[in-house]
Amino acid sequence: MDFGPHLLLAAIEGAVTAAVLALMAAGLSLVFGVMRVVNVAHGEFYMLGAVLAWVVASTLGAHPALGFVAALAIAPLIVGAVAAAADMTVLKRLDYDPERTIVATIGLLYILQQLTLMGYGPEARPVAPPFNQRLALPWVEWGDGGVQLYWPWGLSVTTYKLFVIGAAGAVLAGLWALMTRTRIGLVMRATQLDGEMALAFGIPVERVYAGVFGLGAALAALAGVLIVPIQQAHYLMGGDALLLSFIVVIIGGLGSLAGTVIAAILIGMSDGIISVFFSPTLAKIIATLLVAFVLVFRPQGLMGKPPR
Amino acid sequence: MTDIKTGPANPSRRTAIKTLAGAGAAAASLPLWARYTHAQTAEPIRIGFQMHATGIGSAYGRWYDRTTQAAARLINEAGGINGRPVEIITEDDGTDPKRGAEVVEKFANQHKCDIAYGTLFSHVVIGSAPRAGELKLPYFVVSEGHHVASGMLNRWTVQPGITDVKSQVKSMAPFVAENLGKKVTMIFPDYAFGHDHRDFFSEAIAEQGGEVIAKLAIPPSETSFTKYFAKIPRETEVIYHVMVGPAVLTFVKEMGEFFGPSRPQIFGFIDSLEAVDLASPGLEFLEGTYFWEGMPRYAQPDQTEFDKHYREAIGIDENGASVNDPKDVSTYAHMFGCWETLYVIKAGMEAAGYAGPQDRQKLIEAVEAMTEWPESNEHPQGPKLFNGKTHQVFGPQYISVVENSRLKVVQTAAMETGFYPDEVDYTTQSF
């Protein structure tokens, strides 16, 4: 394949990765920002979202679009409720102590993973996309008669992939509006700035924490539902996703939504492009190196605020 | 942290009494559970089954388990081995080489197993076999890897139930070159299993006058594939794929989306789609493509009595899925290896007059002396030829085409097409 079309193809693939990654990392970053909890089980919420999407779609058994829309609504709600319950029964009892919450969420990770293995099984199962039209993409070249359009072999995208990119953008915009334009967002930001003071002003901090933990998990679950028609639901899918989200969150700055989005695009695109033109291993090496550099030269991340 | 918590260090009186009571009960029943120690003839033969219950191999593990339990049940119904019942002792290895070695050790020292058996994934076999060798524990693997016949393992490791990948690949090359095309692009996972395919197939297709024009290695953890397809050269006539793991459906789907209406011929190893329903959404693209099968998943018109018997014993319908749940698709192309291996163990123990762990060496020698097994209820996949020197078995291979989301066998490659010169003689090694 020629360089130009090849680059376009790589960029589209990278954009899909970036979109899903941004959603997931936004959840992780939100939980850390407000609660100062490093949620190691975040990848499992992503996996649960995907698995529940399969459960919902296959129980309904109706038209793929109906099953998918139902999954889009139900799966994040269930996962959010599970996470909020985990917060109230486990994390709250640990007084949100940083070290102990890490250990507790590792425990949560294994519990969720093994329960899924026991209930859902070890197979990778697909969910039919609501729509999936293959769009052949044209490319320009300079021929005899000036600029010409042509359709290179294999250069294509599907409508569903475009939808994933759009949907992730819309959800992130919604999240931004929620955080900056609503009372709920105000309460969350107040809790983030100073929990004790917020409590003194009558903000029910415990309920805010449960809500934030649930919201973070629901974002991961939403990413899971969006990806499952492209990939498949599998009980181990949370592992790699978690690692990438951590990379994104560290580069972007823990707790900063804008930084998370920028870092997700950076990592997603570079992964797509570097792994096409060089090797996938090099893409991973560069991502990890980037994390190291960020930690050395800008520990708060690209957009994070230095601790006061 | 300043709050002091009472924990296991300060047991309450109630817990202490409970523990004592438990220990007392165990001591009182000691004569019961120690009764077999001197009556060896009545004691069951213990086969340690190293199962991929969790980890990436778990779909295979579940069906290896069902096959193993079914075969063991039939063996016991027919009077066991040397008049002793067979007991399968299952341990999960997490599809992890390190845990694999620990499991082998546990079989030998804790469970007092007679032999270890049943491992599939090659990295687990390679991680576990040296420990089995040190413990002098016969280790019967069902892994299809070439590592047994290549000589990299030891005299205690045997693969008598399933043909190795080198032989499988070699017997596929003539079909590919004659029917599909001579310019091949290979897509394979970037670790030992994929490299075996790359090396052996490149060699085998060259012998047929063909050529591998591109080799695309894909990292095992990859989840999106379109970016690799861009590297497929335009003049490719055949794509040869051996992807494994949970991302394989994505792989196929994205391959379909990439090529759209104009695809080359496609040949793959069913390893990719074991335990996957061919009618799954996204797999429509596979219509008219070809697959290697170790044993035909869908009952063919010329189905043998042996295949019927085998399906019935495990509980598999004619589509290769569980009779209880048509969505629960088996790993049909591989799991026959468990069944056949257990019957080889039985034959070996009978030939060796196996009475207990002191006869482990005799068992290996007895298996090494075996050569042929005809197609039968014990060997439902087909006739077998065992090479005692390389510890590797050879059998027929099947080539199937996808038609209406089912696999139809189009050619059976005789086992002779997969022969290659011996690379090792384990019988010259000391025990």
From TrEMBL, chain A:
Spell out the InterPro entries in the cross-references. Answer: ABC_transp_permease, BCAA_transport_permease
- GO annotations under biological process? amino acid transport
Q: Which domain of life is it from?
A: Bacteria
Q: How does it sit in the membrane?
A: Multi-pass membrane protein
Pull one GO CC term from this UniProt entry: plasma membrane
Q: Recorded GO terms, molecular function?
A: transmembrane transporter activity
- Indicate the principal place this protein occupies in or around the cell: membrane
From the record, give the transmembrane residue ranges: 6-33, 45-62, 68-90, 102-121, 160-179, 209-230, 242-267, 273-297
Per UniProt, subcellular location reads as: Cell membrane
Q: Which UniProt keywords apply?
A: Amino-acid transport, Cell membrane, Membrane, Transmembrane, Transmembrane helix, Transport
UniProt lists the family membership as follows: Belongs to the binding-protein-dependent transport system permease family. LivHM subfamily.
Q: Which PANTHER family match?
A: ABC TRANSPORTER ATP-BINDING PROTEIN (PTHR11795:SF442), BRANCHED-CHAIN AMINO ACID TRANSPORT SYSTEM PERMEASE PROTEIN LIVH (PTHR11795)
UniProt name for this protein:
Amino acid/amide ABC transporter membrane protein 1 (HAAT family)
Q: What is the lineage of its organism?
A: Bacteria, Pseudomonadati, Pseudomonadota, Alphaproteobacteria, Rhodobacterales
From TrEMBL, chain B:
Please indicate if the UniProt record lists NAD as a keyword. Answer: no
Q: Which organism is it from?
A: Rhodovulum marinum
The Leucine-binding protein domain, residue ranges = 44-403
Which region is the signal sequence? Answer: 1-34
- Alphabetic keyword roster: Amino-acid transport, Signal, Transport
Please state what the protein is called.
Amino acid/amide ABC transporter substrate-binding protein (HAAT family)
Write down the superkingdom of origin: Bacteria
- Family under the similarity heading: Belongs to the leucine-binding protein family.
Which biological process terms from the Gene Ontology are attached to this UniProt entry?
A: amino acid transport
Is Heme included in the keywords of this UniProt record? Answer: no
